[in-house]
Queue: 2 jobs
Job 1
Amino acid sequence: MAALLRSVECVRSFGYSPVSFLSCLRSSVGRLPRRCAARCLTTLVSSRLFATESVQKQVQFSQPRFTRDVDGGGGGAVKKLDRALYRLDVEVRKTGRISLRDVQEIFSEIKGAGAASVTQSLLAIRCCGSLLPEELPKNRIALVTDIWNTLRSLDVRLDVSHYNALLKVYLENEHEFSPTDFLSEMESNKVEPNRVTYQRLIGRFCQQGDIAGASKILDYMKAKDLPINENVFNFLIQGHSRSGDMVSAKCILDVMRTAKLEPSADTYTYLMRSYAETGDIDGIRQAIREAESGEVFLLDRDYMEVLLALAASGRSEFVDEILGKMRKQVGYNQDVINAILQLVNIGQVDVAYKLLLTMSKPVTLDGGAIFTGQFFIRQMVKVETPVQKIIEICDDLKSRSLNSIGLLRATECSLVFDKTDYAEIFLKALHEQGADVRPHYFWPILVSHAKRLNEKGIYETLALMVSLNSMATLETFLDYVFPAISLRDVDSVIQKLKDLGYTEKAIVAPLVMQLVINKELATASRLARQCQVGFVPLSAVRSLAIAYVTTDDLDSTLDLLVRMSESREQNQRIDYVGLFLVNYLNANGGQVGKVEILLGGCKSNNLSISRANSELLQSQIGRQGSPQLLALLDELISPHLHAGDEEGETGGTIQHPRNMSLNELEAHYIELKAKNMNTRGILRRLLFQNCRFKNMERTMEIKAELDDCKFVYTPAMYAQLMDLFTAHDRLEDALRFYEQTFELDPDFPMDDHKVLNLSALLVKSGKLDEAVKMISENNSKHGVREDRESLSANVWRLLNAAATQGDVEAVQRLFDLVVANFGYCPVTNSILGPTVKAYLVRDDVEGALKQFEHCCKVYRCTPLKNELFIKLIRLEDAEKLQRVVDLGTEVHGEMNTMYDLAFAFLDCNQVRQARRILETPGIRARHQRLDSMCEKYVAENKVTSMENVVSITRDLFDIDRDQMYYYLLRVYAKGDDVDKALGVWTALQEENVQPSDRTLLFLGDFLKRHNRPVPFEIPEVPVSKTSVEKDKQHNAKLQQFVEALRNNDATVAMNFKRELESRGLQISILNLSSLIEVLLKENRIDESLAIANELFEKKTVPHSRTLKHLLHSLAAVGDVDNIRSIGNHLSDTAKVNFRLKNHLSVALVESGRHMELLESMEKNSSDSLNIPSGVGILRLLERHPELSDRVERLAAKYAQYDVHGPLNMVWMHHFAKGNYEKADEIFKSTPEFQDRLMYVHVLDTAAASSDEGMLRRLVDTVKDAKLTSRSKGVVYSNLIDVLCKKSKPDEAAKTFDEATQLGLTPDDFNRATLNRFQRSLEQNGRPVPFKMPSGGSTVATESFSSSSDSDNSDDERK
């Protein structure tokens, strides 16, 4: 083939006719069988350089799955590398890109291991293409060349898949290479090209506009009977375009239709890009019209490629027209980021900025703003965009309220990239804008000058600091200036620095310390004596000791010790001399020969040491010391000094029982009992803990011991016992302890979740009225005390207990009582599910559908939607099915609903209908349900169905294509179809999918068993049993595990988990997260935490919702240590997103360590990034009102740093307690509350007690503020709810009129409120003064937090 390509040069010399080429192509394609031609459509376009979905298609990384089929395997290095590959997989699926650092880490791991598997080497190559949009193509090519040469030097077997991957990278970077030489290298290494190789070589010729070269390969493919697919046609469009023949490029579409291949969105994108490269906007418009008329759906990423091509060709005037075509679908923000990075690389900054402004504004999980464009600023600095342009864009972002720290970000990036010239200009700009330019901003600049031995640059930087009012600190001089300049003439250095504007005191203190470090004690002593300035002695003690050991300069050392003792400014009692002596003994190896001389000098200079350091010195000196030396030590002791141990004394204190784990409590109990000591307190704690963990048998043993010693139980203990018996379905015992609780204390505040759990057991036992009475009585005493979200599971159990009996009326009665009236939890799909389930249990489909419609209209929720889909599909009731689809679309959008419908068809084994739905562009993958269906097809040996699934899921967003092909391999293996199985390997290359070790192991073993050559290196993983039968058994167990999770059966699920792991099977993060949630529902916190820790050890984290639930549960029981432990596994951004500091503060309060929380906050009051600003402060105020004055002072101090969350909590606390004057004083003194105010706690308090007066005061507070209309609508909604509840329709109507006069519309109110208000008016014969909003949107209770202070570079998320 290489020789054949060399003849192309001769063909070019005779001329070439595109028309004849097209005729040839028509004839060759026309002879392809229709089925074969259709199969060829499952390839990918080579030039998708940025879109999230397209990048996912180009390179699919697969988490190593061989652990499902093997036991043991690999050392630590392999596991580390596999974990790194998995992280890359997650990043690609999420953002469509990876960083250069990620690739370099993988490359370093391979070089360090001295070997690489097929999977690892392929991945390393593929990462050097479009997945690195922030890098220039030349840098990516240099990287892949280095990787390729390294792999060859390591003797890694490079098969055709590696060469094809390299070709793909060359194409993505438009790298100039010789296809002839490339094929020659393959031939010399005895690697046979396949159809993917030839397709990509055609792509290279077409990139060069070389149709003659492409034709030679086409002729060769024809001779070899290799199929010509859509990829080839797309390349040819590009080839004709770049050869200047747009007519022939357009004709390719007709050729495709002749070959029975309809042009796809990829084809039209290639055509539009070709027009864009020539600046033909009319051609682009025509192509768009043709695509639309042919019902070809063009995605945002398709238009973005056109935009890139226009910008690259200098036709930015047409960019706005293309932007107008964007639909901003799922993944739009990430696609935009990748496009912007490329635009900045080619110098099209204005177009990039225009694209940035089209992104949806990102927010944090709690609604706070995220700074927009951090990545954009970073990239501009990286590629050295003109500095004034960067400043201009940063200023514009600030003026648009999109990014107030843009210039600071630019400064940071310039320092990171060692662009000191840029950094200095940015720092000057910051100063001109009034920003506080701090000394540590200059440290990287000083380091850069030091590396270059540029002493002049260091002085210039110090001068710049002076001009920007950012004087160098002691730390700056000591760590970054003096170590990098010559100190031979210290007087000259001092004069130079004084000339720059620094005071002698600021210079000499660090200079003396540096001279001590340099062991120039005489100079240091002279300078300290001459300038009469003190310095920070503690940091110089060790340096002085080391210097004295080296120089033996006693006089200078004693002089400096005197200066140190005179410099006790911060702490008059610290024993610097004693610390020096201790460090001296350590530095000289414990030799005491000169210690007596030192002590004599100390005595003559009136220096003293502490008793603690004297004793320490005596113990170190031991028998080496003379009586005179020991006597000198005693003489030097001063009672006014301490040893200077900043950490304080440590001792073997006994841990308090409240901080002990269950096992520690048991051990402590045994110890106390053995010593015949009082065990009542520890037994009480053990009772609480065993009740908490639902250990019935051990609890009864403990209770028996307490009964024997005539222990007097508290109401709280009886409540715990009640909850324990409730969990074990022992109703009579639970009710007995319930009654005993209130006999001891009629006003005892029973926990809401305990009341709800016992009520659910009553309903389950057919005692509905008793359950209603119990809930009502407890609510009337104290309202809802616990966090509403945490009660959702308890409310669901209560409602589900009635729903499983098919009692529709009971479910509705309980729902109205617990959710609608008392507000125990927010309304969600889960909570509404039992209201629909009750009808389905009765087989009342029409009733279920009506209830489902009610939930959609009133609550914007779709409970049991999938169950309804399946039920109606099986009943073949198309009319009702369409109703569910329409209702689901109103709530979740068309794409989400159609996807759910598709999988419902798959569940019903109606593949054709599912295929039609899944072919809709833009639909994401749902892995768990898809895996379940594929397992079913494999088990039933449905080859065609499995092929259809592989085909129809190809374009799904976030689909794991390796997983799909693995299922296809398994079904081919069951039928012993070797040729089709081998075709899977080629198809993987064609789609540019990264095969996992598991896939290669399976295919390699299958080929060897049928005596067929294996065209790749089989990963060296020890395989125990790879039979399909074992695989079937494993998956059956996995299915049973998933079923247990669906049934909320934690015990069964845990048993299956242990069994699966004992067999070496891997459980997905999603399933483990579900298991954690199921355990948390049963309050089995320790087991949940153990599973979470297993995930942390694997460098992964549970699902975000699960982790939030776990942190909430740990906070509720005051588990401070485990919350901190979790924090060690989270990034700074994740800590903010999961509100770790607030969970930690709640835990400290709940564990009785509130003073530790308060003192920590007071100590770090200037650290605005680590302030718990939410429920933690509120909980502290509620539990310990005696500390309110200290908390208020602290909150006021925080407000000085523009952090108003704590003060907002103080305001809420006073307002909820009825201290309105104090609350108004805080509100009026804080202008920031006019724009952002958190008030949910006030609403909860008022709603729980139906406090109309509190709500009216809150209305008066917010109505004149500058809050959004929806924020005000939330407050008015709550007031109207209370008025309707109190049967005051006239006052409710008056309140509604007042709100509308403020400019509020019905859309600003809670839809459920409007429904309740409407019913109240109609029941009382009053007119309804509003029209219900169409479609309706439930306004959730909004909690507007203070602006985020975090610098989140990963900011543009949608």
Job 2
Amino acid sequence: MATPSASKWPLWLLALPSFYFIPRFDNLTTVSTMSAISAMASPLAVYYYIHEPTYVRRSSLMWAKLGAAACLIAFQIMKLMEHGHLQAMIDVVSAALIGTLVYKEHRHSIRPSSVLALFLIADLLGDVERSSLRSHNFGHFLYSCHAAAPVILKFMMLVLQSVPKDHLIIDEELRQHMQENAAESLFKGLFSALLNPLATGIYLPRAFMRNSNQLDPELHPELLLQQLKRRWAIQQLPEPGRPGNLFIACLKTWKHILVPLMIARLALTALKCAHPFVLIRIIKSVEQQYSEIDDGPRYYAAAAYGIAVFVGTAIAQEHFTHLMTCYTGRLRGGLIALQIDKLQRLTEADAKAFAPASLVSSDVDGIVDNIPNLLVIPISLVELGLGGSILSWFIDAPASIVCLPIILSSFMGYFIAKRMVPHFAKWKESTDRRTSSTSRVVQQLIGIKMLGLGPTICQFLQGLRVAEIQFLKPVGVFSALIAMVTIIADLGVPAAAIGAAMSADHFTNAMSAAKVFPLLSIIFSIHTSFPHIISSLSTIMSIAPSFDRIQKFLCLPERRDCRIAPSEMTAIDEVPGADDVICFDRADISPHRAAPVLLREVNFQLTRGSFTGVVGPHGTGKSTFIRAILGDCEVSAGSIQVNETDVGYCGEDVSLREGTIRENIIGSLPYNAERYNAVLRACFLEGDLTQLPGGDKHIVGAHGCNLSDGQRQRIGIARTLYPQHKIMLLDDVFRSLDIQTAICILHQLCGRNSILRQWGCTVVVATSLPDCLKVTDQLVLLDGIGYATLDRTYRTPAYRQRFVAALRTLNINNNALLVAEQRQQKTLYRYLQANGLPSTPQPCDGRTLSNWKLLMYAIRPIGRLRALIHAILVLMFSAAEVVPEIYLRYWIDFHAEDSSLYARYASLSLAASFISFIVYLRTFVVLSARISIELHRILVQTLGQSTLAYFELVHKGHLLNLFHDDTSIISRELPRAVFRIMYAGFATIIIIAVLLSGNKCIAVAFPVILLIIYLFIIRFCSSSRRDRQIDQQKRDTLCTFFEQTSAGLARLNSDSRRKRCLEEGMSILVAAQVSFYRKSVTMKMVRRAAEILVCGLVAMLLIPAILMKGTSTATSVALSYHIAVNLPRILYETILAFARLDLSLEAVQRFVDFEQQTPQETTQPLANLPSNWPSAGEIEVLHMSAYYSPAVGSAPALSDVSMFISPGRHVGVSGRSCSGKSTLVLMLLGFIRYQGSSKIDGIEISSIAPEVLRSHLITITREPIILEGTVRQNLLPLTLNEGEKQWRYAEDDRKDAELELLLKRLHLWVPLLAKGRLDAIVDDVNYSKGDLQLLCIARAIMRQRETGRRVILIDDATSELNMEKETLANEIIAEYLAGCTVLRTSSRPSALDNTDAIAYLHRGQRVMDPSQIHDESGSDGEAQE
């Protein structure tokens, strides 16, 4: 065809010659379709902008845009009047839509509208094509100029769209916070998104403002809360008795995001379906390079088509990913904000029962992860229908025959996954059991080692891990089967399609690239649609329960204040007096809804400024009475009136925020030094602040983990005091304090010149302390049968004596709390001394080994040879997936007419499927199991041999994370990540090699491409690690907020406090959303980089192949193009696999640090012990000094102690707390170093390996050590690893009879009768702590009878017993352990009644006069009282 003369070309076409490559009649429908889609989307955009506020002021820019739009509308109207055909009418409507959208977009949007830009570009391209065709056909220059006018106007409007509007923003604050590129031009943003993959791109400003720590106002949780709350309320209106559908409410709330999201996904589908047609044109262009046919497509046009499709796919994918992130971010923020808002209005009981933190950590995250798969189900149906229609037309056969492998494999995968569910549940159950058992062991490890059971328990934990892996193996087998079925579908569908095409004679007796590879491209566009639809069924099944749980939480009945306000008093109500501040009018009070009435006919008034004590036996309703004053109970009759809104509350369970001590005490109130110091003095915190590093700047940690129980309780009391509430409610706040401290604080708060009396507060305190009689003005007596009376006559001597005696029965052993508190503080101070001032952890890369060394450490259990064999198999698997397509090229180029090669092609596909099964099976079953078992063995062994000093100082939560999270990551994620990296890496190299083989001239770019990928992986792993750590911290902070707020809802008894709590929750949520969006931006950068790299490779392939003759063949170009379609996904998976490997290597690094940095006890004995040692039981200690710290020169815990115990004697060691009694026991057990001499039966203790030493002694600890299992296993702990042994033999029956008799003697048998006797699980028997101490005494007695050991160490093992049970325990010990050497420590004289002699310790030294151990203040006697 002759080239048209220049006079026939429109003027704009001379300036823009590149537009001439646009197809003519054959693609006219495509451009029109694009324009129609944009036109349909524009009314939705106008509707959206109408509901947005006005951001931009009127200006000359707006009038210029409207002027261009008016000219366009006028021109189209003139054309309609001139021609009057349908196309002219459509053009008028299109121009009117453009004009409307231009105005609304300019005024109501800060950024350029993508809908308007796409609308203008689609219309512009349509006008260009129509004018080019008319110019070519009609050949009139003036007609061409007439056709060019709308194109010029639309191009002018696009140019005006590129002018920034940031200086026109009305809101000054918004303009100051906008990023520099937030209102940038459309073209600049597009180029930024396409050409700068390492930058944040155009979509970053849609989430952030000027910096990445400030959210866009459109994404702020408060706005999302308003939007979702309004729609959720509407959803509940039709049927008030039936809750609405939260999922539907979420869809309707942000439907303006869903519509463009679906359009972007449809565009992506259209571009995927365009690949086969573009590939046909490319193949024909390569084949016709030397053809002189004039009417064929121009060479560069085919290259432009291919590049345009890849670029368009990249843009559509980027836009779709961005919109999906916007929707999931809004969904996440809205759901969490709705839960925060709901939480403020619940009762504390309901909030604790529902555990809202788990909704955030599991349900919301599960919804956000799975909702994208659910939303694209309609698009998958469209893809399946469209692709199937194209495939049927292409091969002239039903598409169902070709898609049969996809359908069969999808159903097979579904049924295999369904069969896998029970095995997965069993594995999950075994994992939970191992985790709970490990947690129990970690909490009791020191006591377990004291009993000499360290090796036994380590073997038990390792056995649980092995059992867990055995349950995991079937899951791995099923996973490998699913992978094989998937590969069969991926490779079987092309084989079936080619077979069907050959049967239908579609190839006309010869294979050709123009027919084979477009067919494969069609299959690629639909091969994931049907499996996605099937897999979405499980997605729906996982999302629906999550929405249901959140919906149930949102539908919980809100807290209803049971009190009546003074304004609600009716005329018949009794008007309270002026001094009455709390009035009960014949009130029947229940703890909560549906609970029986606990207090009846409560009828009295508490006057302003009075101090009232609430006393009564346990369970009589003291806390219910206090909460009734808060309004947090149910009043079924009568009324409660509180004439003050400023009410402070403190209960026995204190929840502290993660911050400093001062921040927890003063909260959001201004700092007042005088009041603050007075509160510290009243709560006895000044001495603690001098010992804690940083004083009141000390970080209390999550839930106050960096404090002792007593310190945490006293800070809670101080937090209640500081605001100077008019009414103070103290609900059993002294329960966690030792009796000395509790009495002192009670007097400081409520005594004669106490701080609360000086402030004129009205105080109601519920307590069991007898001293409350000295400080209160009146008592509320709870009789235990439902009645409460106000008594002011208790001050008579006779009445008071009986009352004090009754209260003392509730406080028999409060001295035990003093011992526990002092031990906690000693451990805490040692920890702080070793670790310094705690602070908020900052994300950092603390790796001491390279990634390669960490990987070698992890795969050490499988051996390098097995690892090499596995790598070779993965390489074969990666190649096997590409070999069938490479074989097609060989078939077409050399044996195009030989149909017998089809059998070889199908065999290659089956071989690839078989290799995939082998590789996945080795990965999931063999290698993963070896790594898991061996690393867990190292972890357990290291923990079991750790020293006492280390275990006291280490954070138990970190240890549990090692056993649970890190173990799971290494066992599951590490093998998968290594496999994915090897597979995707090998596949990427093979694909790029095949791609570049399509054009040998550019093969030199291969190493450059690999270098670019490597550098980007390094950059991404660093950014991903930082973002992951920050996101995890923010998520943990958010969950902690839910937990702490749920535990402290009773304190939120006013609107102002609830408002402050809501603001705090929203600020925490904002930080969590920022980290979520930042992580999403990083992931979008990865996908964008992969798409851009592939676009560059396609351009490097097509342009030389089409423009340079002889550089490529049609088959090589077709194969390269077809493989390039799948390359972005492979690159993306490769980079993500490196991120997963990086996460796994972090866990491996923690394993390495734990193994290398944990100090270990000596395992090699220096002395050979007789098997029956100690046979006599002689203990000799001479001039011994014991040290907790291993540092030379540290202060001794025991100084120059000497002691000799003859065989068979029972000797007691007495003294005040922290006098060194437990230190003596720990020294004898080899836990701490000593100087001097300590011998048992003449053998120096330090010459015996610690584990061997403890196994030859019998110890009873103060804290009862209860193992997981039955009563029999706890009494005979060495049988713990024997599994489900059947007790059938006479020896077993004799042991059972002996155990039964001993338990009857200790009064522990009766609770076992209904629970299974000796087979009862200890945790199910509901033993008290004192009963558990008796059970531990029984265990020691049985072990002594089995082993014949002669030395028994008892460390305050009756501290939780009352007088009666303690007497019983003393008799049993004296009877059963007669003839043994018993060393028994206790601070209670009654515990040492049956001993032969008593040694006294005071401040680490032995004293001969017992009177020296009493404190000068005389508080010791008070403690005994």
